[in-house]
Write a structure and sequence with these properties.
Blueprint: H1 2-39, H2 46-74, H3 77-101, H4 104-128, H5 132-138, H6 144-163, E1 166-168, E2 171-173, H7 176-187, H8 189-206, H9 211-231, H10 239-260, H11 265-356
Helix pairs in contact: 1-9, 1-10, 2-3, 4-6, 4-11, 5-6, 6-7, 6-8, 7-8, 7-9, 8-9, 9-10, 10-11
């Protein structure tokens, strides 16, 4: 028991170290980006200001809204309703402010485009989860046939993700890294690394200024996801951990783009697609994690039902055997009683004859 806990702590420590390494690459990316902003001054820093303001507003509104249930417990309903109306008023004022002070269309359009692209990828992923191999993976059954089918299915999804791109201010963005990371976290190195190599190689031969960077980052997504799978004892990460992983990997992905793409194209592309692609990666992984949890519950319920049916069948079979045994014994006892009755009748007849004599 102690050895098991010790091994688990060691594996968790490895995952934490991996997160720290990815975080360092994120810091390097931010420094590289901000340095270019300050020195060259070709990037629009007002977008960063708008994003920080929006995030701050969301944090404040979220903090207030989470306190509403507590307010409902300690006060009457009217105070709670007034507080709720205040929240709605603040939200309306915030939205009105951003519509007037910022270019709302240019700010939100990339996220909406990524959301549309993400929906297509998730639909294709959902269709793929209907396969028998996916159900076997969920149950932890990694046969050669299952692994082969998952490699084929996930590789096709990874290739399709390279074509389902969104043009964000002239820079292409996609969810290929999300598909590869899902394959790695779900199927481990036997699935994730082949899918990453196939998808990354395909992306490289598609060409473009970011061909090398995108190919390398795709392969690294498979390696990182596979390591996390092994260190997490062949289990899918919990929702908050997988969200952190995707957030950190998005920054790591952009760092690779900045160093493997000729300047200033690499930094300009990273600045354009970083926020929308991070949004799509984190949201897509969270949605898949929720779906995977529901799928696991379905599989567990199905297995429990199957086991219950088997147990009941065994009991019924045993009861039938016992019933058959009891029936045979009853017949034997009835036959013996019949023989005893015949003997008694003969003895009574003999006694009558003796009395008559």
């Amino acid at each position: 028991m102690y050895e098991k806990i010790k091994n688990k702590a060691a594996d968790d420590k490895k995952i934490l170290i991996l997160f720290i390494i990815l975080f360092i690459f994120n810091i390097a990316f931010y420094i590289n980006l901000f340095a270019y902003m300050v020195i060259i001054k070709e990037l629009d820093i007002t977008v960063l200001h708008d994003l920080v303001t929006i995030i701050s507003a969301i944090i404040i509104l979220g903090f207030i809204s989470t306190r509403l249930p507590k307010l409902r417990e300690i006060t009457d309903g009217s105070v709670y309703e007034i507080a709720y109306l205040v929240i709605m008023g603040l939200l309306s004022i915030t939205i009105s402010y951003f519509n007037k002070s910022t270019n709302g269309e240019s700010l939100w359009a990339p996220f909406l485009e990524m959301f549309r692209m993400l929906s297509v990828v998730l639909i294709l992923t959902y269709i793929a989860t209907k396969s028998k191999s996916f159900k076997s993976i969920v149950k932890g059954e990694f046969s050669r046939k299952t692994i082969l089918w998952q490699i084929v299915i996930c590789s096709v999804l990874g290739i399709l993700a390279s074509y389902f791109t969104m043009d964000i201010n002239g820079a292409p963005a996609n969810a290929r890294g999300l598909v590869v990371m899902i394959a790695s976290l779900l199927g481990g190195p036997y699935v994730g690394i082949p899918v990453a190599i196939i998808s990354g190689t395909w992306r490289y031969f598609l060409g473009g200024p970011t061909a090398l960077a995108c190919g390398v980052s795709t392969v690294l997504a498979g390696v990182i996801g596979s390591l996390v799978f092994v260190w997490n004892r062949c289990k899918f990460l919990r929702a908050y951990k997988v969200a952190i992983l995707m957030f950190l990997f998005s920054g790591f992905d952009m760092f690779i783009v900045t160093i493997l793409t000729p300047k200033p194209d690499g930094i300009l592309i990273a600045n354009t697609v970083y926020a929308p692609m991070t949004f799509a990666a984190v949201l897509g992984m969270l949605l898949f994690t929720m779906f995977l949890g529901e799928k696991k519950e379905e599989v567990e319920i199905s297995e429990e039902l199957k086991q219950t049916i088997e147990d009941n069948s065994t009991k019924i079979s045993g009861n039938i055997d016992i019933t058959d045994l009891n029936t045979d014994r009853i017949i034997e006892i009835s036959q013996e009683l019949k023989e005893y009755k015949e003997k008694v009748d003969r003895l009574e007849q003999e006694m009558k004859e003796m009395r008559n004599e």
